[in-house]
Design goal:
The protein is of the alpha+beta class. The protein folds into 2 domains: 188 residues, D-Amino Acid Oxidase, Chain A, domain 2; 120 residues, FAD/NAD(P)-binding domain (3-Layer(bba) Sandwich), CATH 3.50.50.60. Helices cover 24% and strands 23% of the residues. The strands form 4 sheets. The protein has a 9-stranded mixed β-sheet with strand order 2-3-4-1-10-13-14-9-15, sandwiched between helices. Strands 5-6-7 form a 3-stranded antiparallel β-sheet, with no helix packed on it. A 3-stranded mixed β-sheet has the order 8-17-16. It starts with a strand and ends in a 9-residue tail after the last helix.
Length: 371
Amino acid sequence: RRGYLYATGNPAHVPHLVEAAKSAAAMGAGELRVHAGAAHDPAYVPASAEHWQGQPDGADLFLDPALIRRHFPYLTGETIAALHARRCGWFSGQQFGMVMLEQARAQGVRFVSGRVETVDCAGGRVNAVRIAANGATETIATPTFVNAAGPLVGEVGKLLGLDLPIFSELHLKLALEDRLGVIPRDAPLVIWEDDQRLPWTDEERETLAESEETRYLLDTFPAGIHFRPEGGHGAETVLMLWAYHLEPLTPRFPVPLDPDFPEIVLRGMSTLAPGLAAYLEKLPKSYVDGGYYTKTQENRPLIGPLPIAGAHVFAALSGYGLMAACAGGELLAAHITGRDLPQYAPAFLLSRYDDPIYRQQLADWGSTGQL
C-alpha cells in the first residue's frame, strides 16, 4: 500500500490538487497533512515497500519543491506540488481472481467455458440461457441471468434486446526492464497531472511533420501518464501506462497494439522522470499488453436489475474493477436475493437514465476522475 502520488509542474494545477485533497479528507479519506517547508509542518512517513499494515491514511500534500526532491528525487525538478494519497496501492489481479474462483467452487459453483448464444426471455422474464462450447450447445434453465461480460457487455445486452449506455476505451501498458534502476523499487504509483508535448529534437520534429502518419506525434498528449514498480525482490520491471487512445471503439480480441506505444510512453515518462531518457537511444527489453476500460458517460458502473425480470447487469467498472469488484458483487447479490439495499444503490441502476434531472446533470458532469 505505497499510495498514489499525483505530481504537477503547472502552477495552474496546484489549486485543483489542493481542492481534491481537501475534498477527499472531508469525505472521510483521512487526515490531510500539508508539507510546505515550514518549521511546524507535520512529519512525513514514507510508505513501506512491502507491508500494508500500520501505514498512514489520509494524504500528504507537498507544496515545497525542495521537499519533493528530497523524498522523490527521481521526479523532474520542474515538479512544484505533489499529493501522496495513502490508502491506495496495488495487488495481483490474477491471484485475487483465483482466490474468488476457488471460494466459489467450494460453495458448489460450476464453471462452464463457452459462449452465450441466446437468452430465453419468453413472457418478459429470463427462463434459460443457451451456451455453445466445444462444438455443442447446452441449455441451462434459470430464472436469473447476470450480464457481467466486461468489454462485451454491450454485445450480451443485445441478446436481451437492450442497448446499454456504455462505451470502451483502449488502455495499453508497457512493461519495461529498468536495468539502470532509475525508478526506486519502493516508489509509489506516480501520476503526472500535466498534459505535454513529447520531447523531440528540432531535426526529429521536421521529419515527423513531413508525414500525415507521424504528424500526430507533435500534438499535445493528455495528462495522466503513470508508472509503478512491478515484482518482488530482484525484479527490475516498471509498468508504464498512458491512455492517449481516448476515442470510443468496439472491443476486439486480440487487443490491437499500437506499435508506437513504447517510444511514445518512454518519451512522455522522461518528462516526469528524466532519468528514463537514458533508454531513448536504445529501448530496453519491454512488453506491451492491454485491454479495455468499459464505462458509462459519468464513469459510474451499472449494477442491478434490468427491465427484463430476472436479468441483471454488473458492468462498466472502467479502471477501478479490482477495487470495486467485491463491493459491487455484494450489492448485486443484495438485488438478486431481495436483501435490504444501501442508500447509494440507485446511483448505479440502469434506470437512473430515465430521470430527466439526471440526464440534465450529465451534460455538465465535470471531471470523472479517470486515470
